[in-house]
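re: that chain from earlier
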Amino acid sequence: MVTPRRLFPSISSLRALEALDRLGSASAVADELALTQSAVSRQLQTLEAQLGVDLIRRDRKRLLLTPVAQEYVAEVRQGLNQIAQASLKLHVAPIGGTLNLAILPTFGMRWLVPRLPEFASMHPEITINMSTRLRPFSFTSEPFDAALHFGEPDWPGTDRLLLRVESVLPVCAPSLLPKGAPSSPRDLLKLPLLHIQTRPHAWQEWFSHMGTGHPDALPGTIYDQYTTINQAAVHGLGVALLPNYLIEQDLATGKLIAAVPDAVEMMGAYYLVWPKTKSDDPSLRSFRHWLSTQAQTEEGLPR
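^ sequence. v structure.
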């Protein structure tokens, strides 16, 4: 069966519709697509005529998507992303392979990126594109081949490679502890605590591990990234519970001191995850094989 031509709208008209849904105004769409507003309006009118469906409501001088258009865009957006990524692969690496990787900002920059020159020297034909994502997403709607993930290994529809367990240390600026480390972990409750948004119960878990149970929520300021909370600790805003890979340099230079001397392994770990449907991708397979040589061994895992 041959699909009717009218069901294959132009890419430019689909981009205009998607951009209007995302940006909310014809002027913003025109700026993004480098078109005039009248040209955007014509593309939307052409799309409506081709599909035979009302896609746009005109409210005074504003253009709004109809409910059916919003549903249509939600499905079309995935296709547009896939076309863009496929085109990028041809442009950036027409001969070798390409790997699109979603990374956690701090772990990606501090742990993965310093190791990548070795991979690049071993596989110069493979290009790695990286974008930041803080939370799990659907691989069917995002153009990624794999992702760095922290937490339990429960991402649906994926396989995984363990990279390392997270070990954390409570640290602060020396000015917060002028007499040195406290005699008891409980003494930290007297100081302002800094919390990371992605680990809301980290302090409670840590106090429990140290034999100082604290079932109630702990007060303190909340930060969305480790780089921000690290700087807050350096500038004396409180005590932060930070991964040891992140704070080695600040401890060595004296910008931070350990409020308790020993790091504690916490629940959850860092993984590379990838959709099972892409397990046989040659570029991803090469990357996984190399990354397994950088990962924490099974002997290093908590029992």
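The mean pLDDT is 86.
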